[in-house]
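Please decode residue identities from the backbone states below.
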């Protein structure tokens, strides 16, 4: 059985996609795009060197663009203070009094929680918001600072 160059390029692209699924490396999908470009060039009757150039150019350019995009995307907040990860972040609690060490016990979600003050925040009783959750501690900031 004699396979065409396009078939071999498509098999290589499929192998790159399968490798990406196994490893989770999104860059392999960009390489697969380059391999698919070479397969299309083969379908169009381009000679072998042109197929290799198409694979190299498309693979390299899409990889570079993906790398640039990732480098310039804003980073998400750390999990402890990210509302998308922890739904407690941003919720409000009432602090009766702060202890001298900057901690307090607060009622939240039907139970008592240990809380500490966010660094730089004034230790005043009253309404606070959950700025982060660190282990079983709520990190609180004054509600007016939101």
């Amino acid at each position: 059985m004699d396979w065409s160059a396009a078939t071999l390029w498509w098999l290589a692209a499929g192998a790159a996609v399968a490798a990406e699924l196994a490893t989770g490396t999104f860059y392999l999908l960009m390489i697969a795009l380059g391999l698919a470009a070479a397969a299309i060039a083969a379908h169009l009757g381009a000679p072998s060197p042109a197929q290799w150039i198409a694979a190299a150019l498309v693979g390299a350019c899409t990889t570079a663009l993906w790398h640039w995009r990732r480098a310039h995307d804003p980073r998400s907040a750390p999990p402890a203070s990210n509302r998308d990860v922890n739904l407690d972040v941003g919720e409000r609690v009432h602090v009766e009094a702060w202890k001298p060490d900057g901690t307090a016990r607060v009622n939240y979600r039907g139970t008592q929680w240990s809380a500490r003050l966010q660094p730089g925040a004034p230790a005043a009783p009253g309404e606070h918001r959950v700025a982060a959750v660190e282990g079983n501690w709520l990190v609180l900031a004054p509600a007016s600072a939101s």
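Observation: The beta strands are 92-95, 103-108, 111-117, 126-134, 137-142.
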